[in-house]
Specification:
277 residues, alpha/beta, Nucleotidyltransferase, domain 5, 2 domains, five-stranded mixed beta sheet, 5 strands, nucleic acid binding, Transpos_IS3, Transposase InsO family protein, Integrase_cat-core
């Protein structure tokens, strides 16, 4: 049988099936209850068009756990999405020759906070610029500021820093020094900002010049913000944009699955960390 199969260039199982007069039906593999899962996946893909199958799987299984249903295997979700053309197109990029060999991520929350700015244009030409503070461990956006047709000032950065401390600790001073990793922008390097940072328990740290990868956590959030929120939202004018930013931040903190947090949202991850500590 083996020699015949090799001569014909087919598998032995195929030859045996032919000899027994049996043949398996051709066509894509399906399960009976795929029709139940498909509408759930379709709803998630429609609501989150920029999400790949890994994040769709995380959201789907989050729904399953909340309803008391067993989670669905990731291979099955991938198969269903592929059959219905829901997968995102593959994106091939040439990685830059330079890299960052340091480690920005910390082992627990409130050891290092990172900050950076973002900018986008509205449909009427108005420019919105903002800044934020993100924890280097749990990736939660703790505080943020945004302005229209202007730059973020040092006073706004200081207000944002104080708000972050108050949100995390309930007081105006951190119980232990927290590193504040930023670029070399003037709102962060200003003498008043550095003095104020130390007064509330912050330790200013600055990335090397022309080294955005040294603040990779902040850069990753800006990329996520633009890809999953800004580019798919109606931005008629600055008033509409400012109203949406808070919604985006809350959605990111509460809902967005993060690959660095085992596909949990920042607050979901932080809640689990607090419960086990």
């Amino acid at each position: 049988m083996k020699a015949i199969a090799q001569t014909l260039g087919v598998s032995r199982s195929a030859v045996q099936e032919r000899l027994k007069g049996r043949s398996r039906p051709r066509g894509p593999y399906r399960k009976v209850d795929d029709a139940v899962v498909l509408p759930l996946i379709t709803a998630l893909v429609s609501a989150r068009p920029t999400y790949g199958y890994r994040r769709i799987i995380a959201l789907l299984n989050r729904q399953m756990r909340e309803s008391g249903t067993a989670p669905i295997n990731h291979k099955r979700v991938y198969r269903i999405m592929k059959a219905n053309h829901f997968l995102l197109a593959r994106k091939y990029e040439i990685r830059p020759d330079y890299g960052h060999e340091g480690k920005v991520v910390t082992m627990r929350s409130n050891l290092r906070w990172c900050s950076d700015g973002f900018e986008f244009h509205c449909w009427n030409g108005e420019v919105v610029r903002g800044a934020f503070i993100i924890d280097a461990h749990d990736r939660e956006i703790i505080s943020w500021r945004a302005v229209v047709n202007a730059g973020i000032s040092g006073s706004e950065v200081r207000d944002m820093m104080l708000e972050a401390v108050e949100k995390r600790f309930g007081t105006c001073q951190a119980p232990a020094p927290i590193e504040m990793l930023t670029d070399n922008g003037s709102p962060y390097t200003a003498r008043e900002t550095r003095i104020f940072a130390r007064q509330i328990g912050r330790k200013p740290c600055f990335t090397p010049v022309k080294s955005p990868q040294s603040n990779g956590i902040s850069e990753a959030f800006v990329h996520t913000l633009k890809r999953d929120y800004i580019h798919v939202s109606p931005l008629r004018d600055a008033v509409a944009a400012l109203a949406l930013i808070e919604t985006w931040i809350e959605d990111y903190n509460d809902y967005h699955p993060h690959s660095g947090l085992k596909m949990r949202s920042p607050r979901e991850f932080r809640t689990a960390q607090i419960a086990t500590s």
